[in-house]
Amino acid sequence: MTAAPILPERHEWTVDDLGDLPKDLPYELINGRLIVPSPTPLHQYICGRVMFALELHCPDDYFVSIDQSLSVDRRSQPRPDVVVIRVEQANRSPVPVQDALLAVEVISPDSTIRDRHEKVRLYANAGVAAYWVIDPLRDKVTFTELLLSPKGGYEPSVETDGLLTIDRPWKVTLDLPAWTRRRQEVLARAAT
Asked: What are 48-60's pLDDT values in tens digits?
């Protein structure tokens, strides 16, 4: 049996340091901080629903991916839970952030500040046209869409916990009430 890899100690990480990490380690780099996520099955369930909804009408010029690294700058290489990229980038990692049309984050208990604040600034400054935040930690699963403003930064466009059909980036339907029901059923069964 081999020992678990020991990560080098660093106060500040850069993309140059990522080559020192094991290749099978899921990580993201946000403003010089290394984050090793460990999502729950319920988190991944919602990511899958979002991916499926986006793929349903996805044009041939784009590709929908889960947990894909984006190259932003020396101090940031985020891994959105779901991302829409140009199809030409479908066989590389990290994908240049300018080839991302949409980034989606599903909030976890340990990612709330990152997903609602740090990544909002990061993706907006990088020019990602739209950012969706899905919060399954509330009583009802909620969806927030932020769109890049011509003045810079994101502006809120839609916030709901209901059945949603929008036309950005193309026609997408998200059944948030169904996701809420499924989450409640699973949590009730897990509690017994």
From this structure: 999 999 999 999 9
Distance (Å, rounded) from C-alpha 154 to C-alpha 9? 34
Residue 6, pLDDT score: 58
Q: At what angle do helices 176-191 and 41-56 cross, to 10 degrees?
A: 160
Domain for residue 3, yes or no?
no
Residues 132, 103 contacting (CB under 8 angstroms): yes
Q: Domain range holding 154? A: 15-191
In a domain, 10, yes or no: no
- 6 inside domain: no
| Residue 57 forms part of a structural domain | yes
Residue 9 reports pLDDT greater than 70: no
pTM of the full structure: 0.87
- Residue 120 corresponds to which tokens in the numbers above? 């909002």
CATH code of 96's domain: 3.90.1570.10
Q: Which long-range contacts (CB under 8 A, 24 or more apart) does 133-139 make?
A: 133/104, 133/105, 133/107, 134/46, 134/50, 134/104, 134/105, 134/106, 134/107, 135/106, 135/107, 136/42, 136/43, 136/46, 136/106, 136/107, 136/179, 136/183, 137/107, 137/108, 137/109, 137/112, 139/180
The type of residue at 35 is I
**Total tally of structural domains belonging to the chain:** 1
